[in-house]
From TrEMBL:
<dbReference type="InterPro" id="IPR007741">
    <property type="entry name" value="Ribosomal_mL43/mS25/NADH_DH"/>
</dbReference>
<dbReference type="Pfam" id="PF05047">
    <property type="entry name" value="L51_S25_CI-B8"/>
</dbReference>
<dbReference type="InterPro" id="IPR039927">
    <property type="entry name" value="Ribosomal_mL43"/>
</dbReference>
<dbReference type="GO" id="GO:0005762">
    <property type="term" value="C:mitochondrial large ribosomal subunit"/>
</dbReference>
<keyword id="KW-0496">Mitochondrion</keyword>
<dbReference type="GO" id="GO:0003735">
    <property type="term" value="F:structural constituent of ribosome"/>
</dbReference>
<feature type="domain" description="Ribosomal protein/NADH dehydrogenase">
    <location>
        <begin position="93"/>
        <end position="166"/>
    </location>
</feature>
<comment type="similarity">
    <text>Belongs to the mitochondrion-specific ribosomal protein mL43 family.</text>
</comment>
<protein>
    <recommendedName>
        <fullName>Large ribosomal subunit protein mL43</fullName>
    </recommendedName>
</protein>
<keyword id="KW-0687">Ribonucleoprotein</keyword>
<dbReference type="InterPro" id="IPR036249">
    <property type="entry name" value="Thioredoxin-like_sf"/>
</dbReference>
<dbReference type="GO" id="GO:0032543">
    <property type="term" value="P:mitochondrial translation"/>
</dbReference>
<keyword id="KW-0689">Ribosomal protein</keyword>
Length: 202
């Protein structure tokens, strides 16, 4: 919750319908059927029997309360789209490397599916092969993680990682343990070129 002081020009037709133009911050606020008393008045100037200018403190919140009120922007909070659309869990009934996956499917997968209703979950057997988690993303890409010989808790961590992944291809600047410096300035040493400088003699 934050208090914002706005110097505004206000035109009042009635207490139920009014429009406020916030000239200082270039924000247009429209409110219908909202009482004027909900604004915190700090100063007011009258002219010819009507309010011509008013300084008000408007309390804004990112929570959109029920009922009519001042329109608020949530700044993308309601526009989030999960990038992972489907997770496939492959297992084998008799292979020892799928022991952890089989336990995960029985104990932890139901809760994982309930907590992530936006992700489609499918389970299918792969006889004679290692267990795999395969993710499908809205950009059309697929990623697979082999979870052979992992415990159910470790497999859950991999499933959460796959759910939170964007599906983009990992580049050199995002690899774990690799710090890549990107700058708009030219290198002090310059770019190395094998055809310049003194020749190396063996």
């Amino acid at each position: 919750m934050v208090d914002v002081v706005l110097e505004v020009e206000i035109v009042v037709e009635s207490k139920e319908v009014f429009k406020v133009l916030a000239s200082a911050s270039a924000i247009w606020i429209e409110a219908l059927e909202h009482p004027i008393s909900s604004l915190y008045l700090t100063s007011m100037r009258r002219g010819n029997g009507s309010i011509t200018s008013i300084a008000t403190t408007h309390r804004r919140s990112t929570i959109d309360h029920d009922g009519p009120g001042i329109a608020r922007r949530l700044k993308g909070a309601g526009a989030f789209v999960l990038q992972c659309k489907r997770l496939e869990f492959h297992y084998c009934d008799w292979a020892g490397s799928s022991r952890g996956m089989n336990a995960f499917l029985q104990t932890k997968l139901p809760a994982f599916a309930r907590e992530n209703p936006g992700v489609e979950v499918s389970v299918s057997p792969r006889p004679g092969k290692h267990p795999v988690i395969r993710g499908h993303f809205i950009n059309g890409r697929e990623k697979a993680i082999c979870v052979r010989n992992m415990t159910p808790h470790e497999i859950l961590d991999k499933a959460l990682y796959m759910r939170s992944n964007s599906g983009e291809k990992m580049n050199k600047g995002t690899k774990a343990g690799r710090n890549v410096v990107r700058s708009n300035n030219e290198s002090v040493r310059g770019v190395w070129d094998p055809y310049h400088g003194t020749a190396f003699k063996v």
